UniProtKB/TrEMBL annotation, chains A, B:
Its cofactor is Zn(2+). Broad specificity carboxypetidase that releases amino acids sequentially from the C-terminus, including neutral, aromatic, polar and basic residues. This is Metal-dependent carboxypeptidase. One of its GO terms (molecular function) is metal ion binding. It comes from Halovenus rubra. Keywords: Carboxypeptidase, Hydrolase, Metal-binding, Metalloprotease, Protease, Zinc. The keyword Disulfide bond does not apply. Belongs to the peptidase M32 family. Zn(2+) binds at residues 265, 269, 295. Its EC number is 3.4.17.19. It holds the Pfam family Peptidase_M32. The active site is at 266 (proton donor/acceptor). It catalyses: Release of a C-terminal amino acid with broad specificity, except for -Pro.
Length: 499, 499
């Protein structure tokens, strides 16, 4: 090794040590957040807020550290491909964080905190006018935030990149537009179909029974209990590292299928996290890609496995046994895939209408941030769009534009990644089957090794080595496309509803 | 306010913000540690080690920050009494941390990590010779550590101050010596007594039943579930803040009394933490005093309440009901206070012989650190002392000098605080009864308000405002003394064993 190369290696090591410190503090924050949502007694909130916001401050200080700028400049272009990927990822986060004035960071954080009770009251009273001024402020602050990062670009594009930095906004918009153009016809046809899907569940089921069932589902899928755990949370989520990726779920007495779906969804997220490289823990090479890829993993397991016929041929007997009911695999399959075309609530939506809920939010937040829509018009536009895409109209703001918390948190640009993730799930599942052959037999026999292996090799273990766009092309041999999702949806629902 | 006073107030505020940041990071570490001991799946260890050691580094950096030196110099003597107490506490920690070279911090941490598997193997094989070299290294490193803090003072005194900075070592040693001189006669008399205490428990009890019983015990004592929770851990502990102070316990099938005692012990710790000032959270005024005072609170509830006759008149019916056994309050009382004079294991010891186990450890670690005892002599000296104080001799190293983990962690000077805490518990309970009158009726009726109120007013709510020595004198009107404990022990056991 030349002395120059050696010196560069030393700089890289010092840089990486700092990056690891930054990421370990971030993961410590994740533990505090898990605890707060799952374990913490209610009285703990004031102390936990202080602890968490202090870790955020430390995290931010490490990311904006001047030393990082120097290292990045010194390393850029002088290191190998893997190291260059690390430099790329850290530079992006570092520059973004440094672009935002401290004062704006503070105002954003305060505005979100203040917005929460206002939104809660407006939602409880189903009265958007109570929230209007607050939403205006949040939109303005996020426009200011986008301008601080790049005053010359479309502000919505800039915000979208906080959640999905490596899929360009035109590609994302094209995919969402395709969903908007293609799905309503299918949804309409389903609404007009005479088919009534079966529902094998009757009455109510206690949390203990449901927990034992979803635990069995996790066992079936091969969840590694030595590196994870299952708990309940009001809003299910998963969190952790490749050494400890936990899932949460929730149980509604009359909706065991909801618990199964939600648990398998979170399992998908956790399986991605658990598939990251152990050796690269603490660096971008051992960290997951952004929202779209993460959501592709949760949706792949939730929809392409958990809502598939072979899965129910495998799992129906388990439900029968634990719930003491008799029903065919086909009945469970139908119930898992029932389309609720009169549902107004995103989080209760089925696999198909879900995307119309997303398109409504995407179009409205995009236009708000671009300055093409006035905040006061949101309820009217929302209801019009829901009616146009789903054929039903919300009765009030609570089941309309006030239902989601995202904007209250100042998260504009997040919603699209939900649909993009589902679309990518189909594309990845298609590529896996192209390479491995049909996976029905694997699923029906509870053998997930080949599927998991393919995902691990083509997605998980790369961490952030590739950009999202490159990762998709490497894994599937194609550019990001909605084709697979639309084929899948048309075939599956055409069959189910005799279209 | 003069402009000078105003400026000083501003400096104090900046200083305090830094102190809070330091303490919030420390409390975040506490959450990670609780999670690791109670919730974390085993596979999580590698990631958790990185996260925790990073938080320790950040914590240490905040404590050794040069700004802190400047602020401390600027504030010292110019602030009011409360602020001066904060300055005193922070200065002490800051100077101690700065006295230790980074390299030594690292070597200490590595030596403890390396020592753990060696100690575990030696203990498993009951062979001290396997651990001898490691213990020598740990002793040497701690002597070096003590010399770095103050080369001119007794190194054991310096180490003791890490756990108990505000009780001088002569006072501590005098109290331990008094226990060593007074208790063996009582223990001997008990061994010779014909009295056989009752044992109402027969057979084995499952964890679920025991958990429901200790939950009832916590309810009875008034544990605030909105600011705490109960879980199980291999080594019970309590941790947290005034907003969220959690307890853990463990269940052995044949020892429900052990679970009750351990749970009430941890409740005592938690009750101290929960009694700290909310407004002063994050500063020494809202933080607990050191080990002796903390242990006094756990021992007071464990021994003076949980092992008292009136408590068993209150609680016996609860055990009868939940365990389906019939026994008198007197029988439970006798069982809770049985003296096991042939027990070699500290953590299984009764309230009385416990102190002899501590004295053995204290005398040995003191002599090791002072250079008056060679590591190779430890097993022999240990066994001789146990035989002298307890009248029984360990058969092997595992039930002798290898039983405790403390030295493996490099903790020399910790053991004495266990006994000092029990002694202080008696002194505080005596002072409370002097002021409030006899508390038997309160305890028997499950009314702990007056006792809790007294402890809160005289101990908890002061945080670290007073030094330990001053706190004891303020609360009891006397200097720290073993008199109350010895009176209590002689009276209680004299009565129990017809001496």
């Amino acid at each position: 090794m030349s002395s120059e190369a050696q010196q560069s290696e030393e700089v890289y090591e010092a840089f990486l040590e700092h990056v690891r410190k930054y990421n370990y503090v971030g993961d410590a924050s994740g533990v505090l957040s898990w605890d707060q949502q799952v374990m913490m007694p209610e009285g703990g909130t004031p102390a936990r807020s202080k602890q968490s916001s202090t870790l955020s401050t430390v995290h931010h200080e490490l990311l904006t550290d001047d030393k990082l700028s120097e290292w990045l400049d010194e390393l850029d272009g002088t290191v190998d491909d893997e190291q260059q990927a690390v430099v790329r990822e850290v530079r992006r986060s570092h520059e973004r964080a440094n672009a935002i004035p401290e004062d704006l960071v503070k105002r954003l954080s305060e505005a979100s905190s203040n917005a929460l009770p206002v939104w809660e009251e407006a939602k409880a009273k189903s009265d958007f006018s109570l929230f209007e001024e607050t939403l205006e402020e949040l939109v303005e602050l996020r426009r200011e935030y986008a301008a601080a990062i790049d005053p010359d670009r479309d502000p919505y594009e800039v915000l979208f990149e906080d959640y999905e930095p490596y899929i360009d906004i035109d590609t994302a918009e094209a995919i969402l537009t395709e969903l908007r153009e293609e799905l309503p016809a299918l949804i309409d046809a389903i609404a007009e179909s005479d088919v009534e899907p079966a529902d094998p569940f009757e009455g109510e089921y206690d949390a203990e029974t449901q927990e034992s069932l979803v635990t069995e589902a996790l066992d079936t899928l091969g969840y590694d209990w030595d590196r994870g755990r299952l708990d309940t949370a009001p809003h299910p989520f998963s969190t952790g590292t490749q050494f400890d990726a936990r899932v949460t779920t929730r149980f509604a007495p009359d909706d065991p299928m909801g618990a199964i779906g939600s648990t398998i969804h979170e399992f998908g997220h956790a399986s991605y996290t658990l598939g990251l490289s152990d050796d690269d823990y603490g660096t971008p090479l051992g960290d997951s890609r952004d929202m779209t890829v993460h959501e592709s993993q949760s949706r792949l397991w939730e929809n392409h496995v958990g809502r598939s016929k072979p899965f129910w041929r495998l799992f129906a007997s388990e439900v029968e046994e634990q719930f003491g009911i008799t029903a065919s695999p086909q009945a469970f399959y139908e119930h898992a895939n029932e389309v609720y075309d009169d549902n107004m609530i995103r989080v209760e939506a089925d696999e198909l209408t879900y995307h119309m809920h997303i398109v409504v939010r995407f179009e409205i937040e995009r236009d708000l941030i671009r300055g093409d829509l006035d905040v006061s018009e949101v309820p009217q536009v929302w209801n019009d769009k829901v009616e146009e895409y789903l054929g039903v109209r919300p009765d009030n703001d609570a089941e309309g534009c006030l239902q989601d918390i995202h904007w209250t948190h100042g998260n504009f640009g997040y919603f699209p990644t939900y649909s993009l993730g589902s679309v990518l799930a189909s594309q990845l599942f298609g590529a896996a089957e192209r390479e491995l052959g049909d996976l029905d037999d694997d699923i029906e026999s509870g053998n997930f090794d080949r599927l998991y292996g393919w995902l691990n090799e083509n997605v998980h273990e790369h961490g952030c080595r590739y950009t999202t766009t490159d990762l998709i092309e490497e894994a599937t041999g194609e550019a990001f496309t909605a084709e697979y999702f639309l084929d899948y949806a048309n075939k599956k629902y055409g069959n189910l509803y005799n279209l």
